Amino acid sequence: NTMECPGPNAEGAWSGAKVNEQYIKSLKAAGFSAVRIPCAWHSYMIDSRYTIDPAWLNRVHEVVGMCLANDLYVVLNSHWDTGWLENNVFDASKEAAITAEQKALWTQVAEKMKEYDSRLLFAACNEPGYNSAANQSWSDATALARLVKYEQTMIDAVRATGGNNADRCLVIQGPSTDISNTYDYMNTLPVDKVADRMLVEIHFYDPYQFCLMEQDADWSNTFWYWGEGNYVSGSKHNADWGDEKHIKDQFAKMKRKFVDKGYPVILGEYCAMFRTVSENQAMHDKSVAYYGEVVTREAKKAGCVPFYWETGGVFNRNNGQIKRQDVVDGLIKGATEGQYPY
Fold first, then answer.
1. Once rounded to an integer, what is the mean pLDDT over residues 212-239?
2. Confidence band (pLDDT; 50, 70, 90) for 342?
3. What is the mean pLDDT of the chain?
4. Do 129 and 90 meet the contact criterion of CB atoms below 8 Å apart?
5. pLDDT at 135
6. Is the link from the previous residue into 207 a cis peptide, with omega within 30 of 0?
């Protein structure tokens, strides 16, 4: 929620602070080994040739360097940024323009970051198709082929710049970065001329009522309590789906589909929202921390590299101070217990 605010001059508009080295150092000290940098580019373009504002390229370059200097791996992507790509995957009329912009964008980013070593990974987009109309389905083979084309364009553009980009690890996104859609429909991947350098990305916010739902609706109440031992007797806000078994089963799909075939998976986002509840705040807080622990552990066991979605609720963005030690402890516990099957 820092570098992906649509520009210009919008860094930190949502999180309340720009990136600083004290914050980066605190992530490393807390036990994290990698950061994902969701980034806006489209809204920083200054002409019809898709030229990215040099000042913005310099700033992103600086932030990436700050992370690498503190021994953190980095995944740098092209994020939502008004939805120029990801909201339009189902629109054939925009294919030529999106392809041209995707090529120009990644050529510039790759050239700018070329001297950085293999600890920097590039990710083609964010959640392609996530905000599409409800009647648009990934059973539409033409839309799926369009997504693969956009990701292929990124791969080809990066590889063409040479240097460290010639064999840098690259990340492509499943349809809507949804596990079920990716498992069911993503049967054709882009082609990378370099072997063993492509990863697949998905995001995970199950169950929705616990992770993201902000208020009760006629079809469901919000879930305040989640996980074995964390339910409150008589509450109408106990989770009634999406338990630990569901999480294991979902990540097992990614292991079968990709990991077992030599494609590691990036879990680019996951978290459960913090709420102020009227019944049992302590049990809600425990549920949120436990969710992070479980997802982290099960993702790693299935070969999925977990990146927790943090928007300033866990770490103070100004000084790096930990605001939710229980959440950090849960993530580290899950990471320690989860062992990659490599």
1. 98
2. confident
3. 97
4. yes
5. 83
6. yes
Write down the H helix ranges in the chain.
21-30, 54-69, 95-112, 141-160, 179-185, 208-211, 244-257, 281-301, 325-337
Phi, psi of 111 (to 5 degrees): -60, -40
Cα–Cα–Cα angle for 218, 175, 150, rounded to 5 degrees = 140
Between CA 31 and CA 328 the distance in angstroms is 9
The order of strands in the sheet holding 120-123 is 34-37, 73-77, 120-123, 170-173, 198-204, 265-270, 304-306
Residue 29: C-alpha distances to residues 12, 68, 250, 320 (Å): 22, 14, 31, 10
* pLDDT above 90: residue 289: yes
Which residue do the tokens 């083979």 mark? 141
pLDDT for residue 71 is more than 90: yes
Token reading at 17: 């602070």
Decide if pLDDT at 134 tops 90. no
